[in-house]
């Protein structure tokens, strides 16, 4: 494992546990990330991750295993500096963890002298380590991108800070690449899935977070964003201590309604995968789950799907009709087992095991989000089969219109126009009748396509007049059935 890869694995893991400590506190927390580069040969990168969540149990650190044995001691000595305290503690605890030692070694975790709290009541944890990194600028870019992915979840209880500092002798340059403020934070009243939808909107309106604020042109088209939500959980299995919940959000803009800066159609979708409020490291499992979905049932044909980088999958589509379609999937535990912290207090907090996400729940959640989209925008998500059937609407509606209008029976014409909900045919009768029949056929196809396969097999529309509400409101049902049989030649 290269130094850069090791640093990324450790960074990702430490961020993950810091987020969990903030979540468990159930109060507004601050999570700060500091990356300091000291120009040397090779440069020294000092990484500090701190939070104001509950005090650490230290168990997550004892389980760390990043294969430090393949890294020379000149590049990293394997030491982590840990500082932690609980809300009711009188002292701030200090530890040194040596990852080069085996897990069973007595010298792996060394307790250092504590510091008494002088004033105030607070809790939190800070973890620091320094490593020789030949390309610190590349690591900084990766870290900024990683934290921005976390911000997409818009957790209202966590405020993020990210500081980049480059120190060269007596010269120092400091950058603050994050632009999180009250205007971009999600309201506290929003549910977690609505917060994620809020973040996905911001990602889109900021052109993939390439802009410091939302594009003015795109923001004026905010109402064109079509959103679908889906949720699945394992509560039915009675896992009281391990309730897993999967939430999925799909955001779409039709190509014909796009603003000027979204020119043309985009044949790719960005899929963001999260696990317990951090970018997921199990993307291969998510990728296999997405590939197994019945996309053609929603009018989508997957051409290719691949993992682009940490926390993100790219899907390429065939003949998409969208300016863009982004997907966010979040798997998280609603409860955690009780763990004893260093202060002796028991609290619910993750033990450090980042398990494989439940593929079945992911599939259910994404499918539910697609069905939510289809329920309100059926014409955009017609199945491949329904789309083929819809191609016959013009010819069929034209033939039926000609059949009605070519009849010499005036009573027959009157009954047909009544059934179609038309008051008169004084001007352009061919266009009016054909358009009306075409609209009703399209509505029947869409209504039938929204049903499950079992529902479509059990309930079959009697005729093209069945879905027209105006017809049922003004005509007796028995008369309608008799007239339909007559018109269709039964």
From TrEMBL:
Q: GO MF annotations for this entry?
A: protein-macromolecule adaptor activity
What GO cellular-component annotations does this UniProt entry give?
A: condensed chromosome
According to its UniProt entry, the protein's GO biological process terms are: meiotic DNA double-strand break formation; reciprocal meiotic recombination
What name has this protein been given in UniProt?
Answer: Type 2 DNA topoisomerase 6 subunit B-like
Which organism is this entry from? Rhynchospora pubera
Lineage per the UniProt record: Eukaryota, Viridiplantae, Streptophyta, Embryophyta, Tracheophyta
């Amino acid at each position: 494992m290269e130094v850069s890869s090791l640093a990324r694995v450790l960074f990702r893991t430490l961020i993950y546990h810091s987020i969990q400590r903030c979540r468990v506190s159930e109060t507004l927390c601050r999570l700060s990330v500091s990356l300091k580069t000291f120009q040397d040969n090779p440069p020294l990168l000092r990484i500090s991750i701190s939070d104001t969540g509950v005090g650490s149990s230290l168990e997550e650190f004892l389980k760390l295993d990043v294969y430090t044995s393949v890294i020379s001691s000149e590049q990293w000595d394997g030491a982590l500096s840990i500082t932690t305290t609980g809300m009711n503690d009188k002292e701030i605890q200090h530890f040194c963890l040596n990852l080069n030692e085996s897990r069973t070694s007595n010298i792996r975790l060394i307790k250092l002298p504590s510091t008494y709290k002088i004033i105030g009541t607070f809790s939190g944890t800070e973890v620091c380590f320094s490593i020789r990194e030949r390309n610190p600028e590349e690591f900084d870019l990766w870290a900024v991108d990683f934290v921005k992915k976390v911000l997409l979840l818009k957790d209202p209880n966590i405020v993020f800070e990210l500081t980049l500092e480059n120190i060269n002798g007596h010269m120092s340059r400091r950058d603050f690449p994050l632009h999180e403020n009250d205007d971009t934070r999600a309201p506290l009243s929003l549910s977690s899935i609505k917060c994620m939808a809020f973040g996905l909107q911001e990602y889109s309106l900021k052109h993939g977070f390439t802009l410091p604020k939302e594009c003015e042109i795109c923001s004026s088209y905010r109402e064109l964003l079509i959103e679908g939500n889906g949720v699945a959980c394992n509560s039915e299995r009675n896992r009281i201590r391990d309730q897993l919940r999967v939430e999925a959000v799909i955001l779409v803009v039709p190509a014909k309604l796009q603003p000027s800066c979204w020119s043309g159609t985009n044949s790719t979708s960005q899929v963001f995968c999260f696990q317990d409020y951090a970018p997921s490291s199990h993307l291969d499992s998510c990728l296999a789950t997405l590939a197994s979905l019945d996309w053609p049932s929603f009018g989508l044909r997957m051409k290719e799907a691949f993992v682009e980088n940490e926390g993100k999958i790219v899907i390429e589509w065939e003949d998409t009709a969208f300016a863009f379609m982004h997907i966010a999937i979040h798997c998280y535990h609603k409860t955690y087992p009780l763990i004893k912290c260093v202060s002796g207090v028991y609290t619910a907090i993750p033990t450090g095991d980042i398990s494989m996400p439940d593929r079945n729940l992911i599939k259910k959640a994404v499918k539910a989000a697609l069905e939510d989209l289809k329920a309100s925008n059926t014409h955009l998500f017609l199945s491949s089969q329904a789309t083929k059937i819809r191609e016959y609407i013009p010819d069929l509606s034209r033939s039926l219109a000609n059949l009605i209008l070519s009849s010499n029976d005036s009573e027959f014409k009157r009954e047909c126009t009544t059934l179609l909900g038309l008051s008169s045919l004084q001007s352009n009768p061919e266009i009016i009748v054909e358009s009306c029949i075409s609209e009703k056929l399209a509505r029947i196809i869409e209504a039938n396509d929204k049903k499950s396969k079992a529902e479509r097999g059990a309930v079959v529309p009697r005729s093209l007049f069945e879905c027209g509400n105006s017809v049922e409101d003004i005509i007796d049902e028995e008369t309608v059935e008799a007239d339909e049989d007559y018109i269709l030649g039964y």
